[in-house]
């Protein structure tokens, strides 16, 4: 087997991956096509940091770079990394990563450290000066009062300055870390395989980026204030040291007592967190009920459901009230319990310290200082306990983020195309820099460089798809979440270039599944899809997406203007207003668009809800026209429309279909009679194939379907 090997060094951000690119004649079935992706190579003498070693397995078949079909390549499988390495690198959010992102701000970190020491020193010195102040007042200390007061004034001025510098810098570091994490999590979700989105609800995924990341965000934001986090820690540590320096006899007894009381109080306060949470939950339940009621107000009205909704909301108000009352009790106990801690400590101090002052073992100033430290220690210990609680919450949030993102593998083919796109786009789009400025661990887990480097040149993909037939070759498929239900079982069909193929069949026969496979949202478990004889898996997914357009029954528009929705047909290009209008005219949408209040700048609302079904469909067709993809899929595109809208949409579709390789899925057989070929799908395979008249003449299931629909119509 003829093979050539080159070493591919792929370097972006701080990740450098090395992969060996081989070009096998058996793989490409022709001379090796120079891969434009190789232009991403770094210098060949780059140091080996971060290299992924490739070990060729002695025997076995190569995996395709996507899961699914039997290997299309009969060659040794080069192993990119061991299973242990794979497992090890699965988590997206790791403390090592957080630290590596933080360490990018070295100067700020040093400033934070110095200012933390500065403000803690000021705070901890205050009680000492209070002690001296009293000693000056009672004449034990000979220093002039003004001298002492000016020292205290300096201390009082420095503390807030240090605090501002500490909080500002810490905040800047953390916000930058959070921005990168947010961007990386968003990207990681975006490149998951389709089954990931089958598995998780949108709410859960939104929660990752809002509440879970919020918990991580608050660990620093809520803990940089006085009495929390690092400051609390340094104050506890510093106070204990000072107490021992001031009075080695008094410090162990008092220090231990204060610590014990403060910890107990803090732990008690922490134990009331569930009550606060329950109250928050009751509030969330109420707001869910409100939003559901008002968003479904027409359904509520049509069923006279107002009384039921009122009763439901009433029960929620009452439970919110109950939890509010409980919370009030706990709040009042919480308020006074800290004072109890301080009072117990003070009493102990007065008793022990007072005795020692009387016997002359201790100076009055020292006891006064001790009083100040009693407050400092009590609040600092409680702050520390709260910080530990926040840390626990953050650990749980990180675990949730990682467990969701690790549940399904990323779609490597998609990830690769996106990664390449981000790198080529970075010069133009500053917003993408967030997705680049990742630490070594943030980057996509495993871009399978070996397989990816064998992806075909995408330059000829458009040419191939304009001219070549699309073949669905012996496809077998079960949805990943229902592996036991075989949806396709040896499905074979050829979509001839530039012609229209209609796919009909009973509900649940697998027609939309074919669309999903053609769009490469899922990969067949067996069999392959080819275009002009080339397996589509030889092209990366983002390029494939550019050659295929789907118009379905419920087109989804973004909550942007009409013009922006049409321009989404070419999301990465600058689209001129003229091109948008041209597409809108060709899709019979121009007239209704100009009659809208702001014409092309009118916002279409959430999911296009401010437009009618037929208008939405025509905007979607304009979007597809602009995209001008050679392969077109119409999945029940006109089935939800009335006769007038259907006529308008159909004539727009006829323009869109011109010269395209089109697959039409329709229940209404009248809409597919003129197709070049009609395929009848049943039990996961094609049962009949031919033109309308041929199939009617066959008198098989198509003919009976036609008969049934005619009867229903009559
Ligand atoms: N994401 C999914 N996960 C699991 N099973 C699915 C999924 N989508 C569809 N199915 C199942 O796959 C089978 C085929 O569904 P498909 O949507 O392809 O049928 P269809 O022929 O397009 O039906 P219809 O004409 O009613 O739209 C059905 O049994 C359906 O329940």
From TrEMBL:
CDD domains, sorted: ABC_6TM_TAP_ABCB8_10_like, ABC_MTABC3_MDL1_MDL2
Pfam families for this protein: ABC_membrane, ABC_tran
Record bears the keyword Nucleotide-binding: yes
SMART domains listed in its UniProt record: AAA (SM00382)
Chain ranges of the ABC transporter domain: 470-708
Membrane topology classification: Multi-pass membrane protein
GO MF terms, alphabetically ordered: ATP binding
Location (main, coarse): mitochondrion
Subcellular location: Mitochondrion inner membrane
Keywords: ATP-binding, Membrane, Nucleotide-binding, Transmembrane, Transmembrane helix, Transport
SUPFAM superfamilies with a match to the protein in the record: ABC transporter transmembrane region, P-loop containing nucleoside triphosphate hydrolases
Residue ranges constituting the ABC transmembrane type-1 domain according to the UniProt record: 110-393
Positions of transmembrane segments: 109-134, 154-174, 236-268, 336-353, 362-385
Protein name per Swiss-Prot or TrEMBL: ABC transporter B family member 28
Originating species: Eruca vesicaria subsp. sativa
């Amino acid at each position: 087997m003829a093979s050539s090997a080159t070493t591919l060094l792929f370097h972006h951000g701080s990740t450098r991956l090395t992969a060996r690119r081989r070009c096998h004649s058996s793989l490409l079935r022709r001379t090796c096509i120079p891969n434009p992706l190789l232009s991403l190579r770094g210098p060949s003498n780059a140091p080996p940091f971060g290299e992924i070693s490739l070990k060729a397995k002695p025997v076995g078949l190569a995996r395709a770079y996507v899961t699914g079909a039997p290997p299309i390549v009969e060659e040794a499988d080069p192993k990119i990394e061991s299973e242990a390495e794979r497992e090890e690198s699965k988590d997206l959010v790791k403390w090592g990563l957080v630290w590596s992102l933080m360490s990018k701000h070295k100067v700020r970190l040093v400033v934070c450290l110095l200012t933390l020491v500065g403000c803690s020193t000021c705070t901890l010195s205050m009680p000492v000066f209070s002690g001296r102040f009293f000693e000056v007042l009672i004449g034990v200390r000979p220093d002039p009062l003004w001298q002492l007061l000016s020292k205290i004034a300096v201390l009082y001025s420095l503390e807030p300055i240090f605090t501002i510098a500490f909080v500002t810098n810490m905040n800047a570091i953390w916000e930058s870390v959070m921005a990168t994490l947010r961007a990386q999590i968003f990207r990681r979700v975006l490149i998951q395989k389709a089954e990931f989105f089958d598995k998780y609800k949108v709410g859960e995924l939104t929660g990752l980026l809002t509440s879970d990341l919020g918990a991580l965000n608050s660990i620093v934001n809520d803990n940089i204030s006085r009495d929390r986090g690092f400051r609390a820690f340094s104050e506890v540590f510093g106070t204990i040291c000072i107490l021992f320096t001031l009075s080695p006899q008094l410090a162990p007894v008092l220090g231990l007592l204060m610590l014990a009381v403060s910890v107990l109080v803090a732990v008690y306060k922490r134990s009331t967190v569930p009550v606060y949470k329950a109250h928050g939950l009751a509030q969330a339940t109420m707001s869910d009920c409100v939003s559901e009621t008002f968003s479904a107000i027409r359904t509520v009205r049509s069923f006279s459901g107002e009384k039921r909704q009122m009763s439901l909301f009433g029960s929620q108000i009452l439970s919110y009230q109950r939890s509010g009352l409980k919370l009030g009790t706990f709040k009042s106990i919480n308020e006074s319990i800290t004072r109890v801690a301080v009072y117990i400590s003070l009493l102990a101090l007065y008793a022990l310290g007072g005795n020692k002052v009387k016997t002359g073992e201790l100076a009055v100033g020292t006891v006064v200082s001790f009083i100040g430290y009693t407050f400092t220690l009590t609040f600092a210990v409680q702050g520390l306990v709260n910080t530990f609680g926040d840390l626990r919450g953050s650990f749980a949030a990180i675990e949730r983020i990682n467990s969701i993102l690790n549940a399904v593998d990323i779609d490597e083919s998609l990830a690769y195309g996106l990664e390449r796109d981000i790198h080529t786009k970075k010069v133009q789009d500053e917003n993408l820099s967030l997705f680049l400025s990742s630490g070594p661990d943030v980057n996509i887990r495993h871009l399978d460089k070996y397989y990816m480097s064998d992806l075909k040149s995408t330059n000829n993909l458009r040419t191939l798809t304009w001219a070549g037939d699309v073949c669905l070759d012996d496809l077998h498929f079960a949805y990943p979440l229902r592996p036991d239900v075989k949806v396709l079982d040896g499905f074979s069909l050829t979509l001839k270039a530039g012609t229209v193929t209609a796919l009909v069949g009973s509900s649940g026969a697998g027609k939309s599944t074919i669309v999903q496979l053609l769009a490469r949202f899922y990969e067949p478990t067996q069999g392959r899809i080819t275009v002009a004889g080339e397996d589509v898996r030889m092209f990366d997914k983002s390029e494939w997406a550019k050659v295929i357009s789907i118009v379905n029954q419920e087109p989804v528009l973004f909550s942007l203007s009409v013009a922006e929705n049409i321009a989404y047909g070419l999301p990465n290009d600058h689209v001129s207003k003229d091109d948008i209008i041209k597409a809108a005219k060709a899709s019979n949408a121009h007239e209704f668009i100009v009659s809208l209040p702001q014409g092309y700048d009118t916002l279409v609302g959430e999911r296009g809800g401010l437009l009618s079904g037929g208008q939405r469909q025509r905007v979607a067709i304009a979007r597809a026209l602009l995209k001008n993809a050679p392969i077109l899929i119409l999945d029940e595109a006109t089935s939800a429309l009335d006769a007038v809208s259907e006529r308008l949409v159909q004539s727009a579709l006829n323009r869109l279909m011109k010269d395209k390789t089109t697959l039409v899925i329709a229940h209404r057989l009248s809409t597919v009679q003129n197709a070049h070929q009609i395929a009848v799908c049943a039990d996961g395979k094609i049962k009949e194939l031919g033109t309308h008249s041929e199939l009617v003449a066959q008198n098989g299931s198509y003919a009976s379907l036609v008969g049934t629909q005619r009867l229903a119509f009559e």
